[in-house]
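Re: beginner question about structure tokens

> Can someone show what the tokenized structure looks like for a real chain? I only ever see the sequence side.

Sure, here's an example I had lying around. Input first:
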Amino acid sequence: MQARQYEELFRKNMVVTMDSLKLETGQPRESILRDLKGVGYYSSYNARGKFYTLANTPVFDDFGLWKHHGAYFSIRRTLLDTAEYLVNISDAGRTHDELRRVLGIGIQNSLRQLTTVGKIARRQVGGQYVYFGIEDVDAQFERRNAIPIKPAVRRAVKAPSSKGYPDMDPALVIDILVAVLRGHEEDSAAYTHLHQAGSKVTEEQVTMVLRYFDIGKKNSPAQNWN
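And the corresponding structure tokens:
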């Protein structure tokens, strides 16, 4: 297929899956990837690279990330390169939770790989592991140690009978909370994950549950990481 034909396909949907492309083009995966390479494209760093978009589509944020309805892309393309970059540019290292909040997914395996091959360093600070850039580990470690450790605050668990509890099937509430535990903390990401898994939950119900349990970011990544 010619470049303009792919551009027309992606004009309908900015992000598509390989299955959709095979259905639309009638070509095998290898041929599609060869054509996309000529056009320029990104594959998602989440969902095992399931999603695709043209190279001129993403509007990347300050961290080089772009998220669209549950599909996450990085200007550095791979999750390993992205995680390494985010750790290296940090002022005082990053914990896994800090990285997960920005990337939108858990990356324990990626951090383990990067640490094993010596691309980042890991040290324990205040009872938790912090990851540091290999070239600036001592300076980052010193700055991390200078950050006051906030005492843990135990959030009260609201009973199902509490006022304002979502008026919906408890099984759906559980499904939504399980999606959150798997790293889908944003409304759109949780809804997309559940929808793809065959759940009948609506996006409004997802938002209702996440707001009730006070889940999700209130600030932008840039605000959280100053």
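Each token stands for a local structural state, so reading them left to right follows the chain. The longest strand covers residues 120-125.
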